[in-house]
Each structure stands twice: as structure tokens, then as C-alpha cells.
């Protein structure tokens, strides 16, 4: 049975369970449940703190898990990213009181507060910057005002928390993060006999990603324009072209990136396409 770690709380939790449900796996109904078996798929889910997930997977106690890329790197364990999952996007950045800092080189000898000390120490060491790292559990933005640090390194999503604390970002982003599926890299990788099940899980999650990122586009076009239209809607393999009763026209069906839907519809219309219809994809295997 495949053993999968899923975030039980915080920013990753709901979206991770929603994605697994969409991929056809049973998920817990009560947020206090810690373990759940999905007998139909022969899979066991363990609901754990996102920060601990890399530790369990790195030790081989659990086969795969969902966590943040930043949390994976911070844990410094023998686990690797298998698939980015497209949610919980954030950036890990330096910030300080407005006007105080303009670059990482100014951090020499300063006190830096963070919840991601593993990640931060590696970054500073790589750049030869010697600073004192102060490890805090959360609300890191308050640490400067309260006098325990000169600057911080923290997760930034909208930037609203920083702004409210009178701080601004400086330097290049340390890391761009999102939720990721992870697996052990150490000796033997994931537990024996789970390779096939992991492959199925990955394919299902990829199916969810594609269903979220693409739409199906149908339209009618004059036969002599179909080649030009196909360059606008190349699809993944090749668009489906079907005959219509009027033999001068054909019907075309193709997958199109969701965020480009309206631009492509406008261009198809200008080319002469009509009856352009867009529908969402419920599920898929690519
Ligand atoms: N606005 C955000 N705040 C915190 N983490 C975020 C945010 N957006 C995305 N994330 C990602 O979520 C993961 C952190 O989740 P985690 O559950 O540990 O912290 P949290 O959401 O801050 O929860 P809590 O602080 O209540 O324990 C990281 O991978 C982080 O990059
Ligand atoms: O850029 P923003 O959209 O403002 O989001 C980023 C903030 O959200 C998180 O804090 P959280 O609410 O999880 O509290 P915590 O610091 O106690 O973890 C994170 O640590 C930042 O403080
Ligand atoms: Mg937090």
C-alpha cells in the first residue's frame, strides 16, 4: 500500500486535499483525522504538519508527500521534487525596515530573523555573507520592531503583511516556491514495490493540472483556412478536424491553454471561424 503524506494544516492543506480528491482519491471529512485509508486505490494518507513531511519522506517512513518547495529545501533531507503542483505559490525574500537595506551584501554582521533557517544559512554561505540567524516560529515581520533582528527572510505572497509592518523587500528573491510532490532520494529511493503506484499518482495529478490549465475549444471554419487556424490551436498532439454537412466547412476541436482562451477566440474569429465554443475539461490523462 502506498503511504502518502498530506499537509494537515496551514496554507497547503485545503488545496492539497482538493487536488487529491480531484485526482480520484478519498480524502478525510474531519480535519482532526490523522490517518485515512483509501481501499479502492490501495493508498494510505497521513495528515502531518507540512514542515515535518519532508522529514518523514526523507527517512523513508512514508513513500511520497505534498509540501512546499521552501519547506523541502529548509529540511535538508534526502528527498527530491517529483512534480510541481501549481498552488501555494510564494517567494522567499529578504525584507527590512523601509529604506534600511538595498542589497544582500549589507547583511554582513547583521541579525536575520526567519522560520526557514536551513534555507537561509545555505543561501548566505553560498554568497559568503556572515550574519547571525535568529530562528522564529512565525510572525517574523514583528521581530525587527521588537528588537531581536535587523532584517528578516520570510515567505511573501501579496506583500500585505510586510507593508503593514513598515517593511520592504530587498535583494533578489531567495527562492520561488509552490506546493510540490516529493519522494525519497536516499538509498533505494521510495520503498520497494511502490514505483508503479507512484507513477499512477503522478499521472493522476498531472491530469488534474492539465484539466485546470486547459480548456477544450470547438469551432467551424472554411476548409481552405484550416491550416492557418491549426497554427492558432495546435493542441497537444494535433487538432481533431471533422467534416461538416456543408463540404466547404470543417469542425475543429483542440485543447487550448485556459489563460489564452480569449486571445485565441478573437484571432480565430478574425480569421473567419464561427460557432467558437469553449468547454472545461473535467478530467484527463495526457
Ligand atoms: N501567504 C502564505 N503564508 C505562508 N505560507 C504560504 C503562503 N502562501 C504560500 N505559502 C506556502 O505554504 C507553506 C507553509 O505552510 P505552513 O502550513 O507551514 O505555514 P502557514 O500556512 O503559514 O501555517 P501556520 O503558520 O498557520 O502554521 C510554504 O511552502 C509556503 O511557501
Ligand atoms: O505576503 P502576504 O500575502 O502578506 O503573506 C505572507 C505572510 O503570510 C504568512 O504568515 P502567516 O499568516 O502564516 O503567519 P505566521 O507568520 O505566523 O506563519 C507568512 O509567514 C508571511 O508573514
Ligand atoms: Mg505561517
From TrEMBL:
It catalyses: 1-(5-phospho-beta-D-ribosyl)-ATP + diphosphate = 5-phospho-alpha-D-ribose 1-diphosphate + ATP. InterPro entries: ATP-PRT_HisG_long, ATP_PRibTrfase_cat, ATP_PRibTrfase_CS, ATP_PRibTrfase_HisG, HisG_C, N-reg_PII-like_a/b, N-reg_PII/ATP_PRibTrfase_C. The lineage of its organism: Bacteria, Bacillati, Actinomycetota, Actinomycetes, Micrococcales. GO terms for molecular function: ATP phosphoribosyltransferase activity. It comes from the Bacteria. Belongs to the ATP phosphoribosyltransferase family. Long subfamily. Catalyzes the condensation of ATP and 5-phosphoribose 1-diphosphate to form N'-(5'-phosphoribosyl)-ATP (PR-ATP). Has a crucial role in the pathway because the rate of histidine biosynthesis seems to be controlled primarily by regulation of HisG enzymatic activity. CDD domains: PBP2_HisGL1. Residues 49-207 form the ATP phosphoribosyltransferase catalytic domain. PROSITE patterns: ATP_P_PHORIBOSYLTR (PS01316). Pathway: Amino-acid biosynthesis; L-histidine biosynthesis; L-histidine from 5-phospho-alpha-D-ribose 1-diphosphate: step 1/9. Its EC number is 2.4.2.17. The gene is hisG. Residues 211-282 form the Histidine biosynthesis HisG C-terminal domain. It comes from Arthrobacter methylotrophus. The keyword Repeat does not apply. Gene3D superfamilies: 3.30.70.120, Periplasmic binding protein-like II (3.40.190.10). It is an enzyme of class 2 (transferase). It is found in: Cytoplasm. Keywords: Amino-acid biosynthesis, ATP-binding, Cytoplasm, Glycosyltransferase, Histidine biosynthesis, Magnesium, Metal-binding, Nucleotide-binding, Transferase. This is ATP phosphoribosyltransferase. Feedback inhibited by histidine. PANTHER family: ATP PHOSPHORIBOSYLTRANSFERASE (PTHR21403:SF8), ATP PHOSPHORIBOSYLTRANSFERASE ATP-PRTASE (PTHR21403). Its cofactor is Mg(2+).
